[in-house]
Every structure is written in structure tokens, then in C-alpha cells.
Amino acid sequence: MRLYKDEDNYQAFEEIYRRYSGKLLGYINHRVYDGQIATEVFQEIFLKFHRNRKRFDESIPLSAWIFVIARSVMIDGLRKQKKFSTQIEYSDESHSGESDVTLDLDLGFLNPSERELIEKRFFEGQEYAEMAASLSQSEVSMRKRVSRVLSKIRKQFQGK
């Protein structure tokens, strides 16, 4: 790191990239499910790393510093991201006249994996067994996870 920090040595950067790119991609992909966004986050991490290389404190392990940058880039991305909202349309033709209701839910407070569960279960209509298979988990685990997310949603909208 010293060569890269003090002398802008490109080979030193290549070595740092080689050592940490795979670990960073794993870290990002575990938290960001959209491949395009994950790529953008990955690029932003190394851009921020490059811009701040002169500030690196050698008393801190390089890996810790890089992952702090990664975490802050992901948090910044979430802050900049528009609210995740979902529209639910409901049509009830059993009553006289038209009764169409559109409900706009802001689910931005859920993390990506929680939103994925809700989307699979309620918007795509997947059964728990199907969800469990696609996410390599047990059906019981899926039921518990969905239940916890629904509880979180209830608390959010009840103001608790």
C-alpha cells in the first residue's frame, strides 16, 4: 500500500485489486441482489479507494480500511436510492359499482432480502416450498422469515 499511496505505483494497485476484488465482490453480492447495482457499487469502492489513498493510515489493516469504504459506499447508495415502493391494486367486483383501490406501500425500510421474500410470496404468488427451493432453505425457515418480515411491516405501519 505504501508504494501505491506515496508513489502512485500502478503495479501496487494491481496487487491490491487482485487480493481484494474477489472478497469485495462476495461481500457486495451477499448484500446487493441486482447485478448491475453490485457492479456499480464495486466500481465506486475502488474509485473511492483511489481518491482517498493519500489518507490511508498504515496503523489500520488495509483489508479493514477497504471494507469500511465498501460499507460506506453501500450505505450512501441506499440513501441516494429512491424509496422502494410497491403498488397493490385491488378490485372487488362482488359489490355493486366499481371498487378499485390502489395502495402505495413504502417498503424502503426493509432490507433487500426482506423485500425479496415479500415480493416472492405476495406479488409473485410463490408457495413456501417454491421459495425455499429457490433460496436453498427449508420451508419452515421460509415461513418464519416471512412471518418476521410481516411483523416488521405491521410495526412500521402501526408506528411502533
What general outline do the C-alpha atoms trace? elongated
N-to-C series of helices and strands:
HHHHEEHHH
H/I helix tally = 7
Could you estimate the helical fraction of the residues in percent? 55-70%
Distance between the termini: 48 Å
Mean pLDDT across all residues, rounded?
A: 75
Helix-and-strand structural type: mainly alpha
| pLDDT < 50 runs, ≥5 residues | 82-103
**Rg calc:** 22 Å
Annotation, overall tally of beta strands: 2
- Major sheet: size, sense and barrel closure? 2 strands, antiparallel
Descriptive notes:
With 160 residues, this protein is mainly α. The protein contains 7 helices and 2 strands, in the order ααααββααα. Strands 1-2 form a two-stranded antiparallel sheet. α5 packs across α7. It is elongated and about 55 Å long. About 14% of the residues have low confidence.
Layout of strands and helices, then pairs:
Blueprint (H helix, E strand, L loop, with lengths): L1 H6 L2 H22 L3 H17 L10 H19 L4 E7 L8 E7 L5 H12 L4 H7 L4 H20 L2
Antiparallel strand pairs: 1-2
Which properties best describe this structure?
160 residues, mainly alpha, two-stranded antiparallel sheet, 7 helices, 2 strands, 9% strand, elongated
Short description:
This protein is mainly alpha-helical and 160 residues long. The protein has 7 helices and 2 strands, in the order ααααββααα.
